[in-house]
Automatic annotation (TrEMBL):
Pfam families: Flavin_Reduct (PF01613). Transmembrane segments: none annotated. Residues 9-153 form the Flavin reductase like domain. This is Flavoredoxin. Keywords: Flavoprotein. It comes from Candidatus Methanoperedens nitratireducens. Belongs to the flavoredoxin family. SMART domains: Flavin_Reduct (SM00903). Signal peptide: none annotated. One of its GO terms (molecular function) is FMN binding. Its cofactor is FMN.
């Protein structure tokens, strides 16, 4: 029998993403989020949800762009730090020792050391309640060659993305493959 846990923000897996933005003075900023996912195939889009009180919220509204940076397990401490302080108060790149790179496609920075980056142009803003959903069209995906497999696709075991467990506030790595999609279920 299943036990009711109530209406809450609880689903698995939840990605750990770092959103890159510029402020009014073009200072690079990053913020860790968990409320996000792919939301459209054509055009390719991603949705992220932020509270209005965040520094990044105003940056996205002002610049109409953001990046999604996927940290590997190696950078979980930096990703956690990015979600615990505000860019209003500190320069997160200087404090973390990581490198801000200017996107050549959108008006937002990305994190050089993170192995996977999506460069996004803001196309829709939806007020939901406490959060605002930003939908960004993915203009490009950049991946370090070290996380690519033989066929040029992302190798999840090399990428080592981090997921978030909201009910216990924990970070987890992704485990081994368990089957081939669109195939394992065929009889």
């Amino acid at each position: 029998m299943k036990k009711s846990l109530g209406a809450k923000t609880l689903v698995y897996p939840i990605p750990v993403w770092v959103v890159g933005t510029y402020d009014k003075e073009r200072k690079p900023n990053v913020m860790t989020i968990a409320w996000g996912g792919i939301c459209c195939s054509s055009p390719p889009c991603v949705a992220i949800s932020l509270r209005k009180a965040t520094y990044s919220y105003g940056n996205i509204v002002g610049r109409k762009a953001f990046t999604i940076n996927v940290p590997s397990e190696k950078y979980v401490k930096e990703a956690d730090y990015f979600g615990t302080v505000s860019g209003r108060d500190v320069n997160k790149f200087s404090e973390s020792g990581l490198t801000s790179v200017e996107s050549d496609l959108v008006d937002a920075p990305y994190v050089k050391e993170f192995p996977l980056v999506l460069e996004c142009r803001l196309i829709h803003t939806i007020e939901i309640g406490l959060h605002t959903e930003f939908i960004g069209e993915i203009m490009d995906v950049k991946a370090d060659e070290t996380v690519l497999g033989k066929n040029g696709a992302i190798d999840v075991e090399k990428l080592k993305p981090v997921i978030f467990a909201p009910d216990i506030a924990g970070y987890y790595g992704v485990s081994k493959p368990i089957g081939k999609a669109f195939s394992i279920g065929k009889r």
